[in-house]
Design goal:
- The chain has two domains: 48 residues; 92 residues, Sandwich (Immunoglobulin-like).
- The protein has one helix and eight strands; from the N terminus they run αββββββββ.
- Strand 7 and strand 8 form a beta hairpin.
- The longest helix has 43 residues.
- It is elongated.
Length: 152
């Protein structure tokens, strides 16, 4: 029995190599394109948030073991106009976490210089000493408030 002729063997080898190169080239192209788009999106987000800053001007609490309330005054002190408050929570010293329940989040349209008042209900703060901190989060930055509440 005769083997495959050298010409046919060479042609088959070239076809296999070209097919492998085409598959690897297509895979690398799609991987590099996806990575480039991801990096581009993250860069644009970082640049748009570079001047973002918020301040928690004051925190007022009404103490009660189960039905206390709190008011948090937040100011956009940065140079970014398109901030949105995406989360807010109050923590007591025992680790209790009380999320913002005064409306729906996110709170959009929070331009620079503007002030937003967040109201919390059913907060478990027996005394002013049981207050631990407030954390307000935006689409760009987060700000903790760890001082004593304004009215305590």
């Amino acid at each position: 029995m005769k083997g495959v002729s050298p010409l046919i063997a060479t042609v088959m080898l070239v076809v296999i190599v070209v097919s492998m190169v085409a598959l690897i080239s297509g895979w690398l192209t799609s991987m590099i394109t996806g990575t480039r788009e991801t990096v581009s999106n993250r860069t644009a987000e970082s640049v748009s948030c570079s001047g973002a800053s918020i301040e928690i001007d004051s925190v007022y609490v009404t103490t009660n073991t189960s039905a206390g309330s709190a008011t948090v005054v937040v100011r956009n002190s940065g140079i970014v106009d398109e901030l949105s408050i995406t989360g807010a929570g109050i923590y007591n010293i025992t680790g209790g976490n009380f999320s913002y329940n005064g409306g729906s989040l996110p709170i959009s349209n929070f331009p620079r210089g503007s002030i937003v008042t967040l109201k919390f209900e059913n907060v478990s703060l027996a005394t002013c000493g049981s207050f631990s901190r407030v954390l307000v989060t935006t689409n760009c930055v987060s700000m903790p408030y760890v001082r004593t509440p304004t009215n305590c």
